[in-house]
Amino acid sequence: MERYGFTKGGTALALPEHSDGTNAAPAAYESNVSGVYPMPSRQTDQEQPVDAIAMLKADHQRVRDLFAEYEGTSNADAKGTLADDVFVELETHAQLEENIFYPTVNEETEEGPELVKESLHEHATVKQLIQELRQMGPQSKEFDAKFHELMHNVEHHVAEEEAEMFPLAEEALAEDLDEMSAEMQELKKEILAS
């Protein structure tokens, strides 16, 4: 099956097949150096993680991947596009956590209130950095340094969340994780549709 990438203008381009028989985008495409952006696989988009923690971890990985792409290109336009993608992913993810996941952890676990309070504080910092980045724009000389500050804050938050809050939730909320995932998937659809 052939995969396609899109130029910034929306033109579809076939991605070359690798020697291993895959159509994985080569490094030049992945880092957006050529101005081509890989098209998400519809199959991957439809396969949602089973429970809430798997869904949140998948979001974390998507942001890590975008950070790696940002780091892998020197093209200012590509960096701006990738930064915008990061902002949308982080804002959507934060809404899922703040509206569904955190309230449940807060109410149903003993350690939850402290962990949620810290996570909400970290979310506020990330939101402030996103606002500052949007105001300055990717052409600003300070943009790259500020984006790296955002990366550092997100990586710290993700590491803490995956080491502390997620194991707690997996143990204490095992029966609720599938239901939370369904709620989060529905909210995510609403957010992305707006």
Query: Which structural class is indicated by helix and strand composition?
Result: mainly alpha
Identify the overall geometry. elongated
Average pLDDT reading: 82
The helix content is: 55-70%
Encode the helix/strand succession as letters. EEHEHHHHHH
Largest sheet: 3 strands, antiparallel
Question: How many structural units, i.e. domains?
Answer: 2
Estimate what percentage of residues fall within beta strands: 5-15%
Low-pLDDT windows of residues = 1-46
Rg, Å, rounded: 18 Å
Number of strands: 3
Strands of the largest sheet, in order across it? 2-1-3
CA-to-CA gap between the ends? Answer: 32 Å
> Counting H and I runs of at least 4 residues, what is the number of helices?
7
Give an overview in words.
With 194 residues, this protein is mainly alpha-helical. The radius of gyration is 18 Å and the shape is elongated. The two termini are 32 Å apart. The protein contains seven helices and three strands; from the N terminus they run E-E-H-E-H-H-H-H-H-H. The chain has two domains: 4-40, no CATH class; 48-193. It is 69% helix and 5% strand. The longest helix has 33 residues, at 76-108. It has helices at residues 27-30, 42-46, 52-71, 76-108, 112-136, 143-172, 177-193; strands spanning 4-7, 12-14, 36-38. A three-stranded antiparallel β-sheet has the order 2-1-3.
What topology does this entry show?
Blueprint: E1 4-7, E2 12-14, H1 27-30, E3 36-38, H2 42-46, H3 52-71, H4 76-108, H5 112-136, H6 143-172, H7 177-193
Antiparallel strand pairs: 1-2, 1-3
